[in-house]
Amino acid sequence: MQIDVAVLIGRFQPFHNGHATLLQLALETAEEVVVVLGSSFHARSTKNPFTWQERADMINATLSPADRDRVSYIAVRDYYDDARWSAAIRGKVERHFPYAKRIALIGHFKDASSYYLNRFPQWQLVAAEQLLAIDATVIRRVLFEAEDMRVSLDVISHYLPLSIRQYLKAWSILPHYAVLVKEHAQLLAYHESWKPAPYAPMFVTLDAVVKAAGHVLLVQRGGFPGKGLWALPGGFLDQNERLFQGAIRELFEETNLAVLASTLEHSLVDVKVFDHPGRSLRGRTITHAHFFDLQTEHLPDIRAADDAAQAAWVSIEKLEGMEEMFFDDHFHILDQFLNLTEGE
C-alpha cells in the first residue's frame, strides 16, 4: 500500500545517528516526511537545551538538498497528558497534509518510553527492527561537562553525524551554553546530595496561582535551576504543615502579597496535583497547585523576597507569548487553570 506521508516523532536533543536511521526509513517509506519536534516551546534547560528551530536546522544539516525539500517540521509542546498530546499531533499533521489518506508512523520500540507509538492506531506503524543503542542523556552530559569541546565531541563521534558535531561545536560558543553548564553542575551537586538516601527521593511541593484584575502573580527565579525564568510562587512542603498552609507560607515568603491569609482561604477556587515523572529536573517532584481568584479590581501590593529575584503581576493576555520563559511545567499549570491554549 502506498503511503502518502511518513511521520517521525521525537525530542532530538540532540539529533543523533539513531534518529538519522529512523529518518532515512521515513524517507524510504513516503515521498513526504513530517518530523514532529516534541518538547517545543520550553525554556532552555539541560534536558531541553535546543529550541525547536535549532533542532530543525540540525536535522536539515544532515540532509541532501533534495531530501530537505521532502521534509517538513511540526513543533508540539509537552501537555503532560498523553491523550491531549497525541490528539494535538494528529490534528497538526492532518491540517498540514489535508490530502493524506495513508499516514505511516515511523518508530523503534527501544524501551518503556516508546509506549507513545501505540497512541496512534489510525496510522500504520513502520517499526525499525534494530538500531544502535544511543542515549541522548549521555550525549548531553558529555556536552555540558566538556573541558575541551573538540576532544569531547571526538569521544562521542560514533553517536553523531559529522554535521551535528560541527553544529554543536559552533552552538557551544553561544552565551546560553555557559548558563546551561552552570545549571548542569548545580543539578549534579543536588542529585549527589541525595545519594546516601536508601531509596530515590520523592519531593512534595506547593505552588500558588493567584489571579486578580486580569493578572496573575509570578516570580522570577533568582538561582539555579531555572535562574531568570518566570515561575509560580511556591516551594517545598515543610514536615510539620498541611498542603494549604505550605502554599500560603511560600506565597507570602516569596511575594509579601498584601492580602490576609483569611482572604486567600475564601478565594481558593481549586487545587490540582501535577505529578508527571519528568516535570522537574531536580527529581521526582509532585506539586499541589492552589488556584486563588481574589476577584478584585485592583492589584494588591507585592515585594519579592526569599529566593525570588522579582515578583510581578502579569496580564493573563501576555502569558501565552511567554511560554518559553517559564520554569519546569509552570506554563502548563497556568494553562490548566486559565485555559491559555484552549483556542488551539
UniProtKB/TrEMBL annotation:
Domain Nudix hydrolase: 193-337
NCBIfam families: cyt_tran_rel
Organism: Undibacterium pigrum
PROSITE patterns: NUDIX (PS51462), NUDIX_BOX (PS00893)
Keywords tagged on the record: Hydrolase, Nucleotidyltransferase, Transferase
Cofactor: Mg(2+)
Protein name: Bifunctional NMN adenylyltransferase/nudix hydrolase
GO molecular function: hydrolase activity; nucleotidyltransferase activity
Keyword Transferase applies: yes
UniProt superkingdom: Bacteria
Lineage: Bacteria, Pseudomonadati, Pseudomonadota, Betaproteobacteria, Burkholderiales
Alphabetical list of Pfam families matching this protein: CTP_transf_like, NUDIX
InterPro entries tied to this protein: Cyt_trans-like (IPR004821), NUDIX_hydrolase-like_dom_sf (IPR015797), NUDIX_hydrolase_CS (IPR020084), NUDIX_hydrolase_dom (IPR000086), Rossmann-like_a/b/a_fold (IPR014729)
Keyword Zinc applies: no
Matches recorded under CDD domains: NUDIX_NadM_like
